[in-house]
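User: Could you write out the 3D structure of this protein bound to 3,4-dihydroxyphenylalanine? I've included everything you need below.
Assistant: Certainly. Input first, then the structure.
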Amino acid sequence: MLENLEKIKQQFSEELNAVNSNAELEKIRVSFLGKKGLVTEQLKNLRDLTPEEKKTAGMQVNKLKNEIEQAIVEYQKTLEEKEYLQEIENSEHYDYTIPGGRGAGTLHPISIVQKQIEDIFKTMGFIIEDGLEIQTEYNNFEAVNIPKNHPARDMQDTYYLDNGQLLKTHTSAAQNAIMKKYGAPKTGEPLRVLFPGRCFRNENLDASHENTFFQLEGIMIGDDISISNLIYFMKVLLSEVFERDVKVRLRPGFFPFVEPGFELDINCEICEGSGCPTCKHSGWLELLPCGMIHPNVLRMGGIDPDKYTGFAFGLGLTRLAMMKYNIKDIRLFNSGNIKQLRQFTR
Ligand code: DAH
C-alpha cells in the first residue's frame, strides 16, 4: 500500500505540471480526491487493514490528501496570476502619440479661482507659498495662539495621525513656518505672502460642509500695516474675483490668532440674500475672516511685535468657488463627476 502512495504522489505532480486551465485543474482534483479518486480509494482500502496497520497507513494517506489539496490551492493562484498577465498582454496598448483634442482635461473650478487670486496678488507683490498638508500640532494650533485646552480647538474636529501629527485644519498652520522662513521685512518693503492649501476637518457632510476643502490665506507684515490696508486688499480681492461690485459686511469676529478680528461676509449669490440652505437662511455667507496678527503669533514666528504689525486673512476658497459658479452643493467638488464639473471650466 505504501508503495502505492508514492506512485500516486508522483503521478499527481506530473499531471499537475501539465495543467493549463482551471477546468483541467478541476479534472485532476476529481481524479485524485473525488468520490472515486485515487486517494479516496486508498482511504477506502484502510478498512481491510488491522487496527495497528490502519493507524500508520491512515496517517500517511491523510498526509498525502492534505498535500494534494494544498498543491491544488497553490496552483490555482498561479493560474490566476498567469491569466491576469495574459489579459494585460492581450489588452490594447495605449498610444501616447495620438494627438490630444476633444479629450483634453480642464482645470477644476477651485483651481481656476485659486489661480485667479494668485495672479491678482502676485501683481501686488505677494509671494506664493504652499504649506504642508501634514502638520505638527504646534504649527496648526500652538503657533497660532491656540494652546492645548483652548476652546477654539473644539471648532476644528481634527484628524490626528498615529505619529501625533495631524492633517492641517486650516491654512493658518503655515503662518509660523513662513514667518520663520522670510523673517521680519528688512528693506522697508512689507512681507507679503499668499498660501493656498487643502484642509481637513471631521465634518458631518451636507450642502455646505465637507471634510476636505480649500482655503487661501494671506499675510502682510511691515512697520506700518493697519486695518485700512487690510480692508483695501480685501476689497480688491473680491471685486476682481466677482468682476463686479459685491455687497459685503464687516463685523467683529473672534480668532485667537488676530486682534482685532473680523468676519467679512458677502451677500449670498445663490439666493441673492433672501435665505437658502447654502447660507443657512441668513442671506449672508461668511467668506473672509481676517484681522490684525496677534502679537503672540508674530513673536512665535520670530518677528518683534513692538516693531512690526501685520494683517492676515483666511479665505474659504471652496466657498468662494461655490459663490462664483453658483454651485449649490459643496460635495460636487470632490465628487469626481467630470460631466458636472466641466460646465464651470473654460
Ligand atoms: N484659520 C481660520 C479658520 O480656518 C480662518 C482665519 C481667520 C484665518 C482669521 C486668518 C484670519 O488668517 O485672520 O477658521
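Residues 170, 172, 217, 255, 258, 261, 289-291, 312-314 surround 3,4-dihydroxyphenylalanine (CB under 6 Å).
User: Perfect, thank you.
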